[in-house]
User: Fold ECF transporter S component from Thermoanaerobacterium thermosaccharolyticum.
Amino acid sequence: MNTKTTTIKNVKTLTLVAMLIAMSAVGAMIKIYNTVAFDSLPGYFASLYFGSYIGAIVISLGHIFTALTSGFPLGIPNHIIIAVSMAVCAYFYSIAYKKFNSYVAVAVGTILNGPVATLIFVPQYGWGFFVQMVFPLTIASFANVFLAAVIFKAISTKIKR
Assistant:
């Protein structure tokens, strides 16, 4: 294998991943409610384009950017838990897209990152927290996963031509 070609591919991948991380930071500034923002769209896209592991890294960093710009309202340990749960969401989103289709993936991503992720904090914060967060988080989750699927499909179609 030609090492020059491999090096160019690695540099291109690293550059694209860095750009997606930067887009997550920008999305972190577009807040919907509290720490709910458009930080995860690049992570969901990355999980489809590069694979679930890279997507998990991008989406986790995206949430950390959002928490940082919000002042870590739930505390640093809880935001790390959220970042990990978002990585899990991106992982299963990617798997659902590859095994089934974009519709199943959007449903999986929305449900995991919306109601399921919010349930994690019921023992600590109670059902009031769940009721307060589940609607805005589910709506934002749907927007992020849906837009990621649409963008990926558009790019994939363009690349195949």
Observations:
- The chain has a mean pLDDT of 92.
